[in-house]
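>> received
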Amino acid sequence: MRPKLGRLAAVLCCLALTACAGGQVRHGGSGPNTVSFALPPSATPNWILPLAIPGYTASYNGVIQSALFVPLYAYDGSSGEVGMDQPASAAEPPVYAPDGKSVTITLKPLTWSDGVPMTTKDVQFWLDMVRAAKDDWGAYSKGLMPDNVTGFHIVDDHTFTLTMDKTYNPGWFTANQLAMITPLPQHAWAKDPDPRKAFDYLVAQSKQLGAYPTNPLWKVVDGPFALESFSSSQITLAKNPRYTGPDAAHLDKVTFLTFTSSAAEYNVLLAGGVDYGYVPTTNLGQKPKLESLGYRVEPWNGWSITYIPYNFNNPTLGKAFQQLYLRQAIQHAVDQKAISQVIWRGAATPGYGPVPQDNDPTFLSDIQKTNPYPFDLDASKKLLADHGWRPGPDGVLVCQDENACGAGVVKGTRLSMTLLTESGSDETDGTMQELKSELSKVGIEMRINAQPLNTVLANGTTCEPSSPACVWQLSYFGTQGSWYFPAYPSGEQLFASGASVNFGNYQDKPTDDLINAATLSTSSQSMVDYSARLAEQLPVIWMPNPPYQVSAIDSALGGVTQDPMAGLQIQRWYRTK
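>> returned
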């Protein structure tokens, strides 16, 4: 967001006057019981329905959705351990049958904002739509939700039982399956008795962003907040006076501000125009200045991994990407330590595999931990030369021996790749330039196509080789982490064959078997083996994992817990003065 010059000048003038008077600066410039929060650079919320389709699964959409519509089960990791957040959940803890093949759930006495009680039919409405439209649901993985639920049995208005197709790990099933469910107001949203038509109608309505504030659909909520306004520059949520749960909002309003770049946000932050913002790593040396302006500066680490997907179905380079030696050569050219220390000023942590590496080590293998492909340009060059790649007239490697280059890689293929990357972040820009430079030293050309984050997410999705949408080759959306896990960091959504968030269409039977084992067993060994396999098999380019952000928080704002799972729990924020 580019601030209006008049407003910015007024804020700066106010800053100067209060500084001369020795007074405390009031941030945000809004009402006495409101807070403004800065969204990531170039990130604009674009989906309100708590049923995302591919390309609309960004975490900031989920933050707004969960404030309006209470999920069946919420999780939080701000205490240092990831666990269920009962006050923010729509149901009491689940009760599993002794054989583990069914689970009984009791809803809390929540009421929709139009006065209608929430019931088990609202959960069934969600499940019926997901079953009818699972191939268009952004979280679908074949064999998992909703495929693994074989029966929905209503006990009464507030209690229901789900029957599963087999016995699952209860911790995984609650955290990674039941937590996907959000009861939806069936009485107000089921405009058609056919679940597929109801889903299509709600998706169509969700695409009409400009109508969000006036659309009667989105006025029926059960969360601690309701939607007041929605535009490309800001989204405002107001306290829901009809909320009936145990986790009511303290603030009257929370406004989410959008910015075109981290530099634009930082200028407004310095002017006191944001209550809760972020500090670009290039400005971390100005921490004392921010503290003198009434902010506390705190890193916000994530339960996440960061990576660049390959498009294995790309018609030009997909077959080349499918060669493990090429992925190894590319990984050897990623100087993760330099990116972490120089570009991120030590705020990022090198990441070498599919499970979070800088938090709980329960699922971390020794192979992932010790990095099987350290930065080594000589090793990269040798791998490429040994497999038939030779420099062309411009220095870019060309396949000269298709028998050596690998199955499906035709002679004359050039290692010239285009990376679709998010714009607006100095850290992302620096990371991509560093990666481009190192790859060029081994003969791989990388062209950078920077676009707003929503464009990157929409264009870098799963595709068939013959589809015009399959032109993308590499995609990066990880300035604040590429993927934030649910409580159980398994890979059924990311790297299982056919998974909707498996953007590059990676397929590997042993990986599928390990992911499946992790959903069934309470032992951590299958997850450790999964960590080791994908650290070696490289389904993506592993990149340093940054903090979600380094936050600058108004010292007068209380109740803030920086959840590693990227949740905000805005209903618990309050003003201390």
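>> The longest strand covers residues 34-41.
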